[in-house]
Structure formats: C-alpha cells, structure tokens
Design brief:
alpha/beta, Small_GTPase_SAR1, nucleotide-binding, four-stranded parallel beta sheet, single chain, 5 helices, Rossmann fold, 173 residues, P-loop_NTPase, ER-Golgi transport, 2 domains
Length: 173
C-alpha cells in the first residue's frame, strides 16, 4: 500500500539516526494519522518541522529547507522561560529568503498543562500580535502576504493540531 511504501522510504531515509528510530517511527505514525484524517495523505508537499527541544515533538529533524511547501513551528507553551529563544529562532526563519513565500503554522503545544501560555500570550512573546493572517479560509493568492497563524494544541491529548493542519492544507497545492 501507499502507506507502507511511504513508511519504508521514511525508515530508509532516517536509518542513520539509529538511536532515535523509535521516536521517528512514532512521529511518522502520528503525522500519517493526521494527514489521513484530514484528507491530506494524497497531496504532495514537503513540510519542514522545526522547533526548540522539549517543545513536544519527539526529535528535532534537521532537513534541508529548500523547496519546502510549509513550515510547522512547534513551541512549548508551558516553558515560558524559553519564549525569547523561540522568538529569535522563529524570527530567523521568517527572515530567511528561502522561506519567504512559505506558509508558517505555529503550534503552541502542551496546553493540557496548567499555567501554559494562552494563545494571546504566545502571540505576544513571539512578536506575532497583528501579524497573523487569520484562521478561516483566507485567500492570499493575489497578495504578497505569507500565510502565518498560531494554533494551540496538546499533542498528548490529541487536540488542537488538527485545526492547524486543516488551515495549512489550504495553502498546499
């Protein structure tokens, strides 16, 4: 099947990271589940996942950012002490010419933990207040505006990220 084919290709590609293979398989299965449930599995796109350590992803995958179709930036909404560091990294990505037209989905993870940042608080600390494009179906084809939006989620509780990926899917051909 196409799923098994993709799984084999992904496993082959990440063989070099032997100590993280279990985590990568978890990430692949999690990501496949999201794509399949949102009807995105059949779309062809390169999505670059970036974020700081302990943001809720199992590993930070270092991939080439050339020719990617989208960026998902994961932020630990509970680790407020690292918001400044996360902002610097995000600012560097947003100013990278190779990513100038690429849509950015910012996921604020760990909202299931008491005292995690709210969406407004995360937007403020990342410098995104009044810079996001809106969560609905937003037509940006005729403008030079890069799609960028913040969604809060709990990967552990399997909530919130689906809306983010649905939003992102409208910008992937």
């Amino acid at each position: 099947s196409r799923y098994e084919e993709g799984q084999k290709i992904l496993l082959f590609r990440f063989r070099e990271i032997s100590e993280e293979e279990d985590e990568i398989m978890f990430l692949f299965d999690w990501f496949y589940g999201i794509l399949a449930s949102l009807g995105l599995w059949q779309k062809e796109a390169k999505i670059l996942f970036l974020g700081l350590d302990n943001a809720g992803k199992t590993t930070l995958l270092h991939m080439l950012k050339d020719e990617v179709d989208a960026v998902v930036y994961l932020v630990d909404a509970y680790d407020k002490e690292r918001f400044a560091e996360s902002k610097r990294e995000l600012d560097a990505l947003l100013s990278d010419e190779a990513l100038a037209t690429v849509p950015f989905l910012i996921l604020g993870n760990k909202i299931d933990i008491p005292y995690a940042a709210s969406e407004d608080e995360l937007r403020y600390h990342l410098g995104l207040t009044n810079f996001t494009t809106g969560k609905g179906k937003v037509t940006l084809a005729d403008s030079a505006v890069r799609p960028l939006e913040v969604f809060m989620c709990s990967i552990v509780r399997k909530m919130g990220y689906g809306e983010g990926f649905k939003w992102l899917s409208q910008y992937i051909n």
